Amino acid sequence: IQGAALISPVINYRWPGFPKKLSAEAYRQQERRDQWALRVLYYAPWVTYWWMTQTWFSSSTAIKGDWKSFNSQDNEMRIKASANGDFVR
Question: For 15-63, how does the pLDDT look when each residue is reduced to its tens digit (9 = 90+)?
Fold first, then answer.
């Protein structure tokens, strides 16, 4: 599965085996709307569908397909995969 983790904009920042300092740093680098989406998923999972489909607030960039947090290598791989037809948005 080429690039499965590479093109995964959402991860579990509360994974017990993941270093807390690194997790907190990566979490803070996300856009605010992604931070809010993850808070809703964690603290109020019963409203997840509503949160992801409502239009009052910005939803997750992963849902909208608006990922701006790629680094240069990820972006290059995404462009190559798109040209080959391997990348589906």
Answer: 888 888 988 888 888 888 888 888 888 898 888 888 778 878 776 676 6
Whether the predicted model's global pTM rises above the 0.70 cut:
no
Domain ranges for the chain: 20-84
Q: How far apart are CA 30 and CA 21, in angstroms?
A: 15
Whether the CA torsion 15, 17, 21, 25 is positive or negative: it is: negative
**Burial class of residue 64, CB neighbours in 10 A (0-12, 13-18, 19+):** exposed
Three-state DSSP at 34 gives helix
